[in-house]
Amino acid sequence: MEIRDADVMNEDMELIEIGIEDDGVVEGFVYDDTRRHRSVWKGMVAGLAGGLAACWTMNQFQAGMKKVTESNGNGQQQQEQQAADATAKAASAVSQTVAHRTLTEDQKKVAGPVVHYVFGSTIGALYGAAAEFSPITTKGWGVPFGAAVFVGADEIGVPLAGLSEPPNKVPASTHASALAAHLVYGATTDGVRRIVRAILK
Question: What is the SS3 assignment for 74?
Fold first, then answer.
């Protein structure tokens, strides 16, 4: 498609109307400065919703991967077990620090998923807020964001906190599965964020 009269649009400008001739040539543009639409709270709400949806989607993806890989070894099971152990340990640490009590095994089974959703939705909210003022954050439809969460949390933060084995002691297949799950998380967070943010305008 050939573009005439307006070839450059900076990150703060949004194309809101175009005229298209029968031959597919774009003739006219009307731009709107998106800076006046920026809102931290709307961005955070949209990101929060995206993060919650992404946590659920991530769980479903991992469950599907488990079914596919069951006959090929226990790498996926190891990844899920490590993730469950990490969230359970985090929940126990919070309980010890805040309430000065030790969680039972049954309580850990409930608290672990809660930590997973709280963390995922909080990171999603921060992502949504960042997207309001730095559109480049959303480049790649959330995939780079998911990769960053994988590196920052799974590969660095969680091991440093003593909630999982060091990365060099984890099989490569487990790293690959975890990365794939976080890419799904990132893409879902961004997709839902865009939809909710559009509704909130």
Answer: coil
